[in-house]
Amino acid sequence: MRAKCYNPAFPRDLRFRMPCRSQRVFFFLSLAILVALASATPAAAQEWDAPARELAEKIVARTQSRTALSLTVKNISSLPQSRVAEAQRALESELRRRGVSLAVPEQAMEQARVTLSENTAGYLWVAEIGHDDSWDVVMVQMPLLAPVERAPAALVLRRTPLWTQTDLMLDVVPTGDGGLLVLGRDSVSLYRVQEREWQLAGSAPLTQSHSWPRDLRGRLVVQADGSFRAYLPGVQCPGTTQPQLNLACRESDDPWPLSPEVNAFFSSRRNFFTGAVKLASSSEAGDLGPFYSAAMFAQGERGFWIVAFTSGAAKLINAKGQVVTAFSGWGSDVAGIASDCGSGWQVLATRAADGTQPDSLSAYEIVNRDAVEAGLPLEFAGPVTAMWSAADGRSATVIAHNLRTGSYEAFSVSAVCGR
Amino acid sequence: MRRSAYLLFAAASLLLALRPAVAGSRPRYGGTLRVELSASPASLDPAQQSAFPTSTQEQFAVLMFDRLVELSQQGAPRPGLAVTWQHDPDYRRWLFHLQSGVVLHNGSPLRPHLVVMSLAASNPSWRVRLQGDDVVIESSSPLPNLLAELACARNSIVVHTEVGAVVGTGPFRAGAFEPGKHLALTANEDYWGGRPFLDSIQITLGRAQRDQALDLQLGRTDLAEVAPDQVRRAQQDGQRVAVSAPAELIALAFSDKPSVKEPALREAISLSIDRSAIQSTLLQKQGEAAAGLLPQWVSGYSFLFRVTGDVERARQLGRDPGSAPSLTLAYDWSDPLARAIAERVSVNARDIGIAIQPYGENLQARGANADVRVVRLPLASSDPAAALDAISAATGRQGAMQTNSPEDLYAADRALRSDFRLVPIAYVPQAWALSARVRNWVTPREGGWRLIDVWLEEDKP
């Protein structure tokens, strides 16, 4: 039942070095034209081959004569008009291949009225074949086409696909030895690259005595020694990936790590941190009030937190624990990342929407107590359901629920500059 | 980052001083959702449906009961009370493995035999039995669309207790219920799918839509129905309106009375109806004129059916005065749209020489003396075969769809209408006006609601 896909493994440091700017411009322009040409013609048209062949066969089977058939194609589906011509060409080609001679309606013996329709299963090609009051109807079903990704113009945020699956996904982390750990609702799964493809290397069930909260959250943290720990509401599962995946869950109200130095207690029956926080290395503790997420960042010698509270407020807090300011328009998930851009720290924040709408991720720099948006927001095909800073601090793992496909898609998001 | 930065938490109490600035995106727990409905069902038991199921009964069912399988927004089956399933090659025998640890609202565990009893009661043509702790469904004819069937509200798992109450395992448990007046629901803390975000739902029943609109304006309700012909006006008034895809079939259902026994008479009435005019004027261009049993977005082929009237042909069919007596046409007296459509049908029929007298009747007293009725049939599923099966069952026919091929569905759609007992007129959307504090509202394309995921914005002082 489970369908998964992923980005293939490829060398991480794949870079082009060009001697001067003009050559770079020429190179990328040429590349763009080549890519556009490649995607505009044969590959796109191939999608119509199978349904056009099937429909042509059905039409021919119902025509009285193969001479003088008129063909009209109408589109009432969500298919862009630009693609309809491709479909029509494919169908005409398949009909001619079967010896059908196409004619204008006035000279035709029979008509084939084809409608590109749509239903819950995808596109539906409907052909009415006949003349006057005598009509046969044949149909061919085909899946919806994947939308064409538009190339981003100039993004500050870079998104690298990590993993996609149909089941709920809470967190994804690389294991450090080439593996990938995926935390789901019911299990932790380990994937490894074998023969250039990700293969499931093991899966261990999560055990808990109570039902999970509806907006389930969870986090994976890989330790320096290669072991890892899955944090879930009221449950923690330490595990190892060598020699094989092992996991032992236990009921636990121990705090989750917010950063290497700070831990925070998570509600066992809800979707937020209770507000109780403590330093990892001492017994110092405090209470912030319930919050969904917190991002740490540094500005010169000073450290700050931005906390997204359950009340809906996102607030900037300084090292003395004072609220410096509050931000509007932010969502519930924030994460801090380091980069080579601007001040060297950006705060990523979802937007204030709910789970019914496509989300976007914006990068902010804090300038004079104000949050200044750095670059364009990164759009997702659905709500962001999880966001955690990665262990290296330079990226965040973002999981979005694609509203169109229903899949959960994990990305590594980092900030790039000067491009 | 320097360690001193983390001393901030010692002064965390300062944080509580500020008021909320903006809304977040993650669901917030708590609050009571207030809902007003014009319908007034007499029972919460999905098995006690009237001849034609109503949207309200299905909406209540998904709140209080679960099904073995659910359909995702994309129409893909996903586990409900059943976690896994398998079938034999010809789809006559299915085996479902149930979730463990599911608890009924009365605190007792959901035993597999209770699932068997529930499914057997709602599907007499199936053989439902236990195999160990698994549930087996068998049928003499193939059931290729069984998963979509099981996801329909009518296949909710309902347990009847010894004291005659109905209990389920759904996300909300029923509290006080005054038929025709009020229903209170509270969150099921132990729901296997995760406790809902709302603490409770208060539903006022039998409230006229005009009063609902007023209550929404005055902040007395969070959710009010909007009739299809009022959608545009509500949107122009700046209301927050959620509209489904066309999800409810408005049709004429002919009785078995001798006065309408002639198929030619029924066909004549069907041909006399100008569905396009009804859609553009009475429905204010909402929904779609329907001559088939499924909406276009589900079938993909409904555009093939002619929705304009054919008065000449209708006159030919209905010209024998003996076959055209004065007929009675009943509609739900609390449904202004049904009344308007009934009156338009009467006018169209008069044009071909058939007299039809419309009159309002109480929904609860359906099955009364009318020759023909205006009925509303909710789309039972976004799966076309399951939806056709539901309509087939509602019209008293047996036999499940054997395939999901669009050509077979097209043929079945035509066959189901061939006797003109059920005459489609229009498919209308379900529409709701929402208060500003309602979040995470999703309108399923097939109508209904998903209140399990709804949460409420914190009230601002």
Question: What keyword list fits this structure?
Answer:
heterodimer; A: 419 residues; mainly beta; Rossmann fold; Neuraminidase; 5-stranded antiparallel sheet; 31 strands; 45% strand; disordered N terminus; B: 461 residues; alpha+beta; 11-stranded mixed sheet; 12 helices; 24% helix
Could you characterize the architecture of this molecule?
The complex is a heterodimer of chains A (419) and B (461). In chain A, 13% of the residues lie in helices and 45% in strands. In chain A, β25 and β26 (360-367) form a beta hairpin. Chain A is mainly beta. Residues 1-43 and 148-155 of chain A have low confidence and may be disordered. Chain A folds into 2 domains: 48-142, 3-Layer(aba) Sandwich (Rossmann fold), CATH 3.40.50.10610; 157-216 and 253-415, 6 Propeller (Neuraminidase). Chain A is elongated, with a radius of gyration of 27 Å. Chain A is built from 4 helices and 31 strands. Chain B has helices at residues 55-64, 112-122, 146-150, 209-217, 231-236, 263-272, 275-282, 296-299, 311-317, 336-351, 384-394, 406-417; strands at 32-36, 69-71, 77-79, 82-87, 93-98, 127-131, 134-138, 159-160, 166-167, 172-178, 182-187, 200-204, 223-226, 240-254, 288-289, 327-332, 356-361, 372-378, 422-434, 438-439, 455-456. Chain B is built from 12 helices and 21 strands. In chain B, β16, α10 and β17 (356-361) form a beta-alpha-beta unit. Chain B is globular, with a radius of gyration of 24 Å. In chain B, strands 1, 10, 11, 12, 13, 14, 15, 16, 17, 18 and 19 form an 11-stranded mixed β-sheet that branches. Chain B has a 4-stranded antiparallel β-sheet with strand order 4-5-7-6, covered by helices on one side. Chain B has a domain at 66-167: Dipeptide-binding Protein, domain 1 (Alpha-Beta Complex). Residues 1-23 of chain B have low confidence and may be disordered. In chain B, α6 packs antiparallel against α9 (311-317) and α11 (384-394) runs parallel beside α12 (406-417). With 461 residues, chain B is an alpha+beta fold. Helices cover 24% and strands 24% of the residues of chain B.
